[in-house]
Design a protein that fits this description.
17% strand; homodimer
Chain lengths: 364, 364
């Protein structure tokens, strides 16, 4: 599989939903495989909150491949021998696309809290500019889970002629207060962490120790990505063997898992980016910009493939089913699959074997 | 209704599950109504994580009554014209019973992190001492929800001859990793808050501003006390009217709710107490001290009334049902009610009208 990682610079303005303008801006992206002559084999991949454009393959020296490597590659469900796959990093991110720690042109200082709020609609508008810059005007498919699924759905509505097929997993039609509340833990924990310094921290301030506020917010995140049953299967009531049951800070295995994963995360993810991306997730609402959800959904022309996971405690299956029922009544081409899984929301990253056949089928 | 609030001092040692000893110790308690001559009308109330012995009635100047005032009082489900109700504050709490900020005798300095870990078993053992001190050897009933339900269940097993009826709501047979993970947010947020000073904060340090770490942990708590549907009903996607949708820190109503409730809470609740009580909840396991859960449950002689709430996302109905099925198979007297409610775990504090009839019936 041929992998290329690029950053493209745009000096034209990106008009944001807020009325503000991002200019200039950059988009980091990665491609897998090769484009065919009539450009009919392009598949766009959209990433989730903590993801990046690095969806597949290994970087030199890395032990872990991209976040959907099980799905994207030669002979895999998204077969890079057949498809030219583009995976872009959302604006607002800290992995290469313009985000709050990018230089606020013409100054060389980072935007920090002066970075404009971006929305899912803005993220995909930026991707449209990239596609257009690459000379790509039609996509075979758009695929994404969680916030990536939001983008896929938003693409289907805002740009109805862009893609043949839309595959959206573990997402919703509008973020519900339950999810906003989980995100609130992160927002408050980051904001109130004195080392966050109201966004004025040094650029590499958290590389060594991580920001506690982000780690704490991420614990809440991890709860919402798992499910009660997956935690039961994974950890049960097992206690860390060297900790004392009657020590105040002795830990259950589930606690050790939360500590370990979140502390590492807080070293590698920029807290301002986290705040901005969480904001984009909170404000996600397919209805915004249209009169009703029905009007928005009615615009869809692509074949829609909605996938949810039975044990998803962040975006509940009924939320995707809601879109499906609406499209079905309209006679729009749509199918909906609720996958049996114990893994909770994380299933879209973990239980690939439960839906890769489905994706393969769509792409055949 | 006659209300009395007392603190009883014990100079005898309390032997804890950990092998440590608490000595001396005090228990704060409140009584409602009057004991009859043959002492056959005593009902014991057990409180939850954030509760206290103040379960009913108004304190002078307070706008809010005790936490179960809708249930306890003259003519109410737990009728104080008929029953003598005792509500005790658990050890480890910050509302009058001995806890981590109490004096570590013979010094006058608080225990702080030297306070021993206490368990649900320890909490009820302390209550047994209080009852015995009051000359009460038999209870008409024990009633509690959430951590109060854990105490009620533990009473049923550890002291099978104590009460005629046990009413346990919104609890479990052993705290599952899902709940421990929610508590982990609070543990980490408190521990990592610099103002917590590893437990060495000044006694009234948080009266004015509250401890951020506790407030943040409490947000995670509130998520687990509500349910996706109750949040939808209560807040929907409503945005705070004076906040901007495209301001990074603009808030949805659910966010304002979380801020408001948790900031106030963090001014009034001692963070060390929170850590110790959360530890007691995490370590709750009816099996501990017995060979199996089956052996533990087999000890029960009281009539058991188990109540759960359909939308409880903290202690799921199937957890209470598990105890019920076990008892049913053993031919032990037990009934189980799963109440239809949108309110989530909080239903045991809020939707009193959905189960007060049930409690009334048990007590008649």
């Amino acid at each position: 599989m041929k992998i290329e990682t690029e950053i493209r610079h745009f000096s034209s303005p990106l008009y944001l939903e807020s009325g503000r303008i991002l200019e200039p801006y950059e988009i980091a992206y990665e491609t897998y495989g090769e484009m065919n002559e009539d450009q009919s084999n392009v598949v766009l991949i959209c990433h989730a909150l903590s993801g990046s454009h690095h969806a597949a393959g290994f970087y030199e020296g890395d032990r872990k491949p991209g976040w959907w490597d099980g799905l994207i590659g030669d002979g895999k469900a998204i077969d890079t021998r057949k498809y030219y796959v583009i995976s872009t990093n959302v604006i607002g991110s800290c992995f290469g696309s313009t985000g709050p720690m990018s230089e606020n042109y013409p100054s060389e200082a980072p935007y920090r809290l002066k970075f404009p709020v971006v929305t899912i609609k803005d993220m995909i508008r930026a991707q449209m500019h990239l596609l257009s810059d690459l000379g790509i005007y039609h996509l075979r498919a758009i695929v994404g889970g969680s916030m990536g699924g939001m983008q896929a759905l938003q693409f289907a509505i805002d740009y109805p002629n862009l893609a043949d097929d839309i595959i959206a997993l573990a997402a919703t039609y509008a973020t519900r207060p339950w999810t906003i509340a989980f995100n609130k833990v992160a927002v408050e924990a980051i904001r109130r962490d004195p080392r966050f310094e109201n966004g004025n921290y040094a650029k590499d301030a958290f590389k060594e120790e991580g920001l506690d506020g982000l780690a704490i917010g991420r614990i809440a995140g991890h709860i919402s990505y798992l499910s009660p049953d997956s935690m039961e299967d994974k950890f049960g009531r097992n206690y860390v063997s060297n900790d004392g049951l009657f020590e105040l800070f002795g830990r259950y295995e589930v606690e050790r898992y939360m500590e370990y994963n979140t502390t590492n995360f807080s070293k590698n993810f920029d807290p301002l980016s986290y705040l901005y991306i969480v904001k984009a997730i909170n404000t996600f609402n397919l209805t915004r910009g249209y009169d009703t959800l029905y009007d928005a959904v009615l615009r869809i022309k692509a074949r829609m493939h909605l996938i949810s996971f039975k044990s998803d405690y962040l975006f509940f299956p009924k939320e995707m089913e809601h879109i499906y029922r609406m499209m079905q009544r309209n006679g729009q081409e749509c199918n909906y699959t609720e996958i049996e899984s114990n893994y909770g929301h994380d299933a879209f990253l973990v239980e690939l074997d439960k839906f890769d056949g489905l994706i393969k089928e769509v792409l055949q």
